[in-house]
Amino acid sequence: MPKITRKSALLAVLLVCLLFLPPFNGFLRQGIFLVEDYFDDRPEQSALFIGNSRTFYHNMPAMVRTIADSAGYTKKLHIEMAANPGVSLGFHLKNEHTQKLLSQKWDHVVLQVLSSDQYSAEQSPQAWQDATSLIRQVQDHGSIPAMFVTWRYTDRCVKNAGMPTAEAKAFAPSGYANMHTNIQEQHAHLAASTGVDLVNVGLVWEALQSQPLRFSLYDDCNHPSIYGSYIAALMFYSYFSGNDVKNVTFKPDEISSEDAEMLKQAVSRDGQTNASN
Length: 277
Prior knowledge:
Blueprint: H1 6-20, H2 27-38, E1 44-51, H3 53-56, H4 60-70, E2 76-83, H5 89-94, H6 96-102, E3 108-111, H7 125-140, E4 144-149, H8 176-194, E5 197-200, H9 201-209, H10 226-241, H11 257-270, E6 273-274
């Protein structure tokens, strides 16, 4: 029987994808990951991301894996995601698919609160109760929970683009600065009461917003641009690995080498992960 090499297996998967799968649907990259993992003897580290569009924009969780591999991380990251547009953590508490994933053993489970639930302290107290419930569930399964601390809305955009449509009028731009403060305070309270780790992307985001930039961190008034998602992915690599991001060589094609270096420096300088475990 002829010996199957890593190269020949990869070529076989690529050929099948090119012949039978429609282009640009993500299956090609997933197929490559599956074959690479089969021949990768590094110990595995697993993570589940639970959230909504702020999590899945630009396939950020998969970017974490690519970043880790480019930096020579000694572990093989296995990452999955349960993220639906515009849904809350309360949705995930009741969702059969999410609960099935949560029943599995993960090293890390990352939770992201719906943006509209973070506009003000009075906006949605239920969101933080739901976050607490999910954190306890994750801890009971022996996994380490972490919060993806996100960012405020912006008015440097086409009016209400990307905003929660049903409630857009309720979110006045005058409250956006206070939204950042509320996000930070609510997550700090959550960490103090539950011991959950915080991956504070919003802190780096806000620091960058105070600087003159050649690009926008926002895709619209709410969602991240590729630059914003790259920041988040860098921070999650640093959190999962405990490593600085200076050795990361991967950058999305849309980001120049100069801008990628600046973003890595910002994460190294301002990035905070409150890791209690």
